[in-house]
Amino acid sequence: MIDILNDKLNKVFPGRVVRKDLTQKIKEGANVPVYVLEYLLGMYAATDEEDSIQEGMERVKNILSENFVRPDEAEKIKSKIRENLVYTVIDKVTARLNEKKDTYEARFSNLGIKGVNISTNYIKEFDKLLAGGIWCILKMEYFYDEESRDNNPFIIKRLTPIQMPNMDLDEIFKGRDEFTKEEWVDVILRSIGLEPTQFENKVKWNLLERLVPLVENNYNLVELGPRGTGKSHVYKEISPNSILVSGGQSTVANLFYNMSTRKIGLVGLWDTVAFDEVAGIKFKDKDGIQILKDFMASGSFARGREQKNANASMVYIGNINQSIDVLLKTSHLFDPFPDEIAYDSAFFDRIHYYLPGWEIPKMRPEFITNEYGFIVDYLAEFFREMRKYSYSDAIEKEFVLGNNLNQRDVIAVRKTVSGLIKLIYPNGKYKKSELEEILQYALEGRRRVKEQLKKIGGMEFYDVHFSYIDKESNNEEFISVPEQGGDKLIPEGMGKAGHVYTIGLGDSGMIGTYKIEAEVVSGKGKFTISGVSGNRTAKENIKMAYNYFKANSKNISNSISTKNNDYLLHVQDLQGIGMTEDITLAAFIALCSGALKKTTKESLVIIGTMSIGGTIKKVDSLANILQVAFDAGAKKILLPTSSAKDIATVPSELFSKFNTSFYDDPIDAVFKALGVD
Predict the structure, then answer these.
(1) What is the mean pLDDT of the chain?
(2) Which of 33, 253, 316, 423 sits CB 3.0–4.6 Å from 258 for a disulfide?
(3) Cβ neighbours of 557 (radius 10 Å)
(4) Dist CA 191 CA 202 (whole Å)
(5) How far apart are CA 574 and CA 489, in angstroms?
């Protein structure tokens, strides 16, 4: 299989492929992006003849040895330029406008020189020099003028960016016909340096998804997962058309538009802007996040009186430092974002796909390929040219999206489908079953976004049951996300006596799930509270529950003793959103359950609370509370009778998930919770 694919690739794309182990061998001794190395390998070693490969390898090594500037040898290279008068170097060059002199000046990253005059023609032709810089092959001269000592003696005679001059997409379109879907996917993965035979099919899809921002305009992708899975590699090493913003800090001027210089920022100069660590995303400007949200939604932004358009895709990469099961129970999957974004539903609603980084294994030596793949510069230009095409309407011929998808959901799914078609079927030739496979994958990633929005924003994002309908058979298929299954906060089966679950508003302003555990032991009537930390009101409300329990215990059962027993009550904030004050009734029921050694009904949640005299309080945001209860695993709910009139505000599909009982007062609530008539 491996040899056949290598032979086919060399036959169909002669001169466009390179053996990837060559890149690794040279990469070890040169700190340059892969696309720079393969640009050189493509010039001298793009063949399957071993002798020519070895000869080309030596030539590339010599070029890197003689011309690539290593930071620790900068002075040596500067000396060579001076002594030889003309010398070729390979370095990353950035440029800036010196307003005082009205000239553009270049800065050499590794060579360490700055203030070198650079022709305006280069700035006009390669504007990325002004935003992040580009790797170049430069012919340098040296001339020191005694009469103009302020002038930099280093002169750029010729500057050649390390990138392909042109791209013939017909070559790709025709060549694609020679490969099966599986072969072509393997070719793409090998081209970015990975060995596809080491990965399961789902992992291959996730690795391809990382490439979608490179082929699809204005595509917003999030990938969060464990460290060491290669999340940033694609955007840093594979394409000269993407830029990685390390640390996450930026300014509106840098990212969007500089009002003083009237120059567009990164989003107008790069195909993809990737933030390397989402936890560090920070704008010095107060309106930075809002401008970013506007751009993610429309591909445009306003600065001053001007409306600017740009095509950059936005990628947000970050680490998840705990297990997904724990994160889903205690928070949501966007939790690694900084506080000013982490609960901004409008920001996350603009994300087209959430790539589950935990499904991609940590990189190991055997995952790196030694086989043939496209020269990454050729691959990058292929990706860039495909941005001019769109397959966003592809699904409309065969499928209809389900009624739970709103307009933003539809746009997200269409863009993902379009991007994956460009990668796997660039010539637009695919079967219905192959399109369906892409559609299912696209729906899963957007539903993952929506599931988190439901936790953050409540009922506004309730419609998460994504589906599609086959136009021919009229069958409807529903798409789920794997991580939404598994353990629930409220487990199935009978619990322990004294254990009660309730839903309440946490001091963070979010609705959460709380577990109350009441333990009863022989003693002298002592009452101890734990788990409420510094929330004074919650503590007072629990004391209120105990006082009500002492005053009314005989109305529950004559067997309850408050003088001969000690009562310990512990509260758990199961989702880590802060303690709730809506806890009095649930604490009262827990004390009764513990005293009677009788469990509450299976998978039951107590909703509502009471005042000091036992008056039942009104339940606010009933629909949101029931949604949280359902997500937590509740199957039965106990509601105050006064909330019956609010049931109309709850979607019938949600309300039908529960076995519902109503109570009139606290005593009635105890009997209903314990299943006593």
Answers:
(1) 90
(2) 253
(3) 13
(4) 19
(5) 7
Alpha-carbon distance of 640 to 661, in angstroms, equals 8
Q: Which two tokens stand for residue 564?
A: 């001969």
| Predicted confidence (pLDDT) at residue 485 exceeds the cutoff of 60 | no
Dihedrals phi, psi of 302, to nearest 5 degrees: -105, 130
Reduced to 3 states, what is the DSSP secondary structure of residue 241? coil
Task: Express as a percent the part of the chain with pLDDT over 70.
Answer: 97
The DSSP bridge partners found for residue 569 are 518, 529
Calculated CA dihedral for residues 522, 527, 528, 532, nearest 10 degrees: 140
Return the DSSP state at 115. -
3-class DSSP assignment, residue 649: helix
**For residues 4, 12, 207 and 166, what is the CA-based torsion angle, rounded to 10 degrees?**
160
d(CA 29, CA 593): 70
Nearest to 583, CA basis, from 520, 539, 632, 626: 539
b/e for 271-280, b at 16 or more Cβ within 10 A?
bbbbbbbbbe
CA distance 18 to 16: 7
Alpha-carbon span 214 to 271, nearest angstrom: 6
Count of positions (residues) in the chain: 677
**Is residue 31 a contact partner of residue 392, using CB atoms and an 8 Å limit?**
no
Q: How many CB atoms lie within 10 A of CB 351?
A: 24
Q: How many helices (H) and strands (E) does the chain have?
A: 25, 28
**Rounded CA Rg of the chain:** 32
Residue 270 · residue 224 · CB < 8 Å: no
Q: Which residues are within 8 A (CB) of 327 and not within 5 positions of it... i.e. 6 or more apart?
A: 320, 333, 335
Question: What is d(CA 409, CA 414) in angstroms, rounded to the nearest whole number?
Answer: 9
Rounded distance between C-alpha atoms, residue 502 and residue 513, angstroms: 6
- State residue 29's pLDDT score: 63
The region of weakest confidence among 89-93, 221-225, 301-305, 634-638 is: 301-305
Q: How far apart are CA 577 and CA 342, in angstroms?
A: 13
CA distance 168 to 161: 19
How remote is the C-alpha of 591 from its chain's centroid? 44
Both tokens of residue 392?
Answer: 């966003």
CA distances from 301 to 264, 271, 308, 309 (A): 11, 16, 5, 7
CA 459, CA 190: separation in Å to the nearest integer? Answer: 44
What lies within 8 Å, CB to CB, of 226 at 6+ separation is 319, 320, 357, 358, 362
pLDDT at 165: 59
Tokens of 626: 């029931």
- Residue-wise burial string across 286-318, b where 16 or more C-beta atoms lie within 10 A, e elsewhere: eebbbbbbbbbbebebebeeeebebebbbbbbb
In this predicted model, what pLDDT tens digit does every residue of 545-576 receive, in sequence order?
A: 999 999 999 999 999 998 999 999 999 998 87
Cα separation, 243 vs 235, whole angstroms: 6
Other C-beta atoms closer than 10 Å to the C-beta of 347 total 22
* Sheet hosting strand 527-530, strand order edge to edge: 527-530, 565-573, 511-522, 499-505, 604-606, 636-640, 659-663
Cα–Cα distance between 454 and 370 in angstroms, integer?
44
- Helix spans in 493-632 (H): 536-556, 584-596, 622-632
Contact 417, 394 (CB under 8 A): yes
Residue with tokens 């340096």: 193
End-to-end CA distance of the chain: 71
- Contact assessment for residue 565 and residue 591, using Cβ atoms and an 8 Å cutoff: no
Per-position DSSP letters for 350-416, written without gaps between them: T--EEEEGGGSPPP-GGGB--SEEE-HHHHHHHHHHHTT---TTGGGGTEEE-TT--HHHHHHHHHH
For residue 312, the SS3 value is coil
